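Narrative progress, year one. The postdoctoral researcher (J.K.) led the effort to move from monomer predictions toward full complexes, under supervision of the PI. The following entry was the first complex the group processed end to end, covering 972 residues in total.
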Amino acid sequence: MTPPALSAAELARQHAAGTLAPRETVERAFARAAEVVAGPAGLNAILWDDHEAALGAAGELAALQHAGSRPGPLAGVPVVVKDNIATLTMPTTCGSRILEGYVSAFEATVVTRLRAAGAIVIGKTNMDEFAMGSSTENSAYGPTRNPIDPTRVPGGSSGGSAACVAAGIVRVALGSETGGSVRQPAAFCGVVGVKPTYGRVSRYGLVAFASSLDQVGVFGRTVEDAAIGLGAIAGRDRYDSTSADAPVEDYVGVANGSLDGLVIGRPREYFPDSLDARVRDRCDATIDALRQLGATVRNVSLPHTELAIPTYYIIAPAEASSNLARFDGVRYGMRAKAAALRDMYEGTRSHGFGPEVTRRILLGTYVLSAGYYDAYYKKAQEVRALIADDFRRVFDGGVQVLLTPTAPTPAFPLGTKSDPYEMYLSDIFTATANLAGVPALSLPIGRVDGLPVGGQLIGRHFDEATLFRVAFALERALGGSAHQ
Amino acid sequence: MSATVAAPASAKYEMVVGLEVHVQLRTRTKLFCNCSTQFGDPPNRNTCPVCLALPGSLPVVNESAVELATRAALALGAEVHEESIFARKNYFYPDLPKGYQISQFDKPLATDGGLVIGERPDGAPLRIGITRVHMEEDAGKSIHDRFSGASAIDLNRAGVPLIEIVSEPDIRSSAEAGSYLRLLKQVLEYVDVSDLNMEEGSLRVDANISIRERGAAKLGTKTEVKNMNSFSGVERALEAEFARQVAIVDGRGTVEQETLLWDADRGTVRPARSKEGSHDYRYFPDPDLPPLRLTNEWIARIRDRLPELPDARRRRFAEEYHLGAYDIDVLTASPRVADYFESVARAHGDAKTAANWVMGEVLAVLKNTGAPIQQFQVRPADLATLLDMVRAGAVSNTAAKRIFALMVQTGDRPEQIAEREGLAQVGDETQLASWVDEVLSTQAAEWQRYLAGEKKLLGVFVGAVMKKSGGRADPRKVNQLLAARASG
């Protein structure tokens, strides 16, 4: 794999300086995509693209700059976005048959902001249908392969975006998180993935899976790429009532910050005996590196961690069962031919949704039903509060960042996790941050049998800056060993 | 309000009724998006990604809807809560774009209100409790009869803000239901939150009704009756459903819990086509909307800005204008009529005369034209001037009615009309004397009888003079002249 030689920052700098034409950069990205993505052996990472619009945008950008317009931090930088994020010129299908051919009438706030920062959206990436999955095998348009080892999954559900960054097509990509769907594929593909604090980034235009957990996340080839990407999309949006009015810090500006005196927590529940020994070794080595950078490391406990997966698999399907009710064949997307209304609903939804989505809608409908609500949904919300309290207690106790493995194992081979519950356990270390709403970031910390291992940093609400400060320092300290 | 409650229809049973009233709030835009709420626009014109439920769209609460809902709740005596929660009510229907309605469930905007609709036989106030007032969005409209073999959906109404006002089951007769609804509508009209137009659907009433033997504490099985399009329709539907349930129970049958539709033409209820199975709306808090938080200061500010409500206004009209109960009821039925009356009364000074004119002439014209009083051509100040002219003797009462009719037509001022039409009262002695002479010469025999003591004939002469003058003669002066002739 040859990554693009230039970082997002360097590309933007050269585009602004006029030493490199954005059009050339965009063409190079498409060329790289053509090399690795298409064909039966290809990565199948990109579902839809729009060369004409992308090249047009590149030309426009150059013209604007010529006219004296200030170039943005992502001037002319090609990006891809997950297919559950609404775009105007390409379809937004969420990897589902039910939205085949659907083109949004409006644009997601994050896409508008990316474009305002100068980025050029060149394609929409493959994903588990409606973001439900951890391997990108649940796409109606076929699985995505891992660029590091094409026999393996890229992780999911944002596997297409992770693969595009790992394969050197783009430096920055958007994914979405509900239980780890950016961090886990980032770990599997050896790139950086950040899930911001709930409310940090607008969800307007992100097709909802589980609204109280969903958050747009960013992939970067490097920590800096991811920091620039998040900086471009973060901030309050009046079209999303759950977006927060918290000031957005300069995530790149913390690049050279010191870790002296920083308190890092090592939560014991994330290092169970069953953890792959080599993953544990990589984490321990990372902790050593943090110590050498001046940080203090404390063993801490987040006692409700083991409840995260069952809690998640009540709350997320419950919200999904309601969020996905709008896909009824009435206004857009697929519609089954039928004489009676009920038959139309059933035909549309049973043919339009794949098995995992169907499973979760059924599960969610069940846990919200009269007579079960208190035992499941309400109880799960109570446990969710306990999980959030775990984090609060540790952070109030002086810990600033937690370090954990991102996933219990490296990327697994395609087609090997047929038991849904086994697949769900893939998110065991990531779902907690979504339930608590705290920010988290995965970065490469080494390899096992040539497969990338991700280390996860979890921080306080709206303190992405500290996560980036630690990630920048670690990335420098680990150097080449992060990818070996 | 002095509601007289009709005698019960059955000696053995009583009805137990609770009403659910949906009121469309008069906002410019919808509850969760910026689409217009204009009624009657071409189908689906007033739609956007949010109210079409396009994937990825999100709701944002319309603050003016919250303000109107709060006004309404406070006017109904309810407690408005600092925190309320929007919840999703999940069900599939083609005119419900999201597959759920955003409503409020276990934490509504306001609870514990009520309206006093009259007095009990023992003099205690007859109060109908209001359980809750909550906000929700309207659904769209399904049109089944426009296209053959297909239904059409109009989503202009989808997302329009509503409040639902749920009463306690405190209503015991159809007349009480009518009184409650009329007072509820009046209060909401006073606080100006809705068009309250039942035909356009901006006010809708559903009734829950059960029966029980008088004196029994336990409630019977209730049915829900829908599809009433007037208050009298509600009263008739309740009577019909009461009779139906009484017949069932008397025949030792069991009342089924079901939804019924009122058929106004036939005067009967019939079962609604049952939707699939029993409803399980799977309510849960809408994760797209944070809890609605209002400060007590804000709520207090809304309360301070409430206008005078019907009860207070009635009391004041009695004290300030010394009007009778009937006059007060008529004049305060609508706040705008009451405002109009007060403007005339204050400008003219004689409240009783002002009341008579507003209740008589003004309301008659409005009834004929069907126009609301805010569009009435005669400004209160002009009507007061006309009444002043009558009091001063400048025009006769008869002439005043003609002048008023012309004011309605032209919008001109009364002095101008009186001048133009020659309707100013004639007080000129010479002119009056010549009319009196003419009358007495043609009615010489009657005049002799009058002089001989048949005093009641005086009115005949006055009337004849008035007629001869075309109504312009000043009757007071005519009387004086005739008296002078008789004694002279």
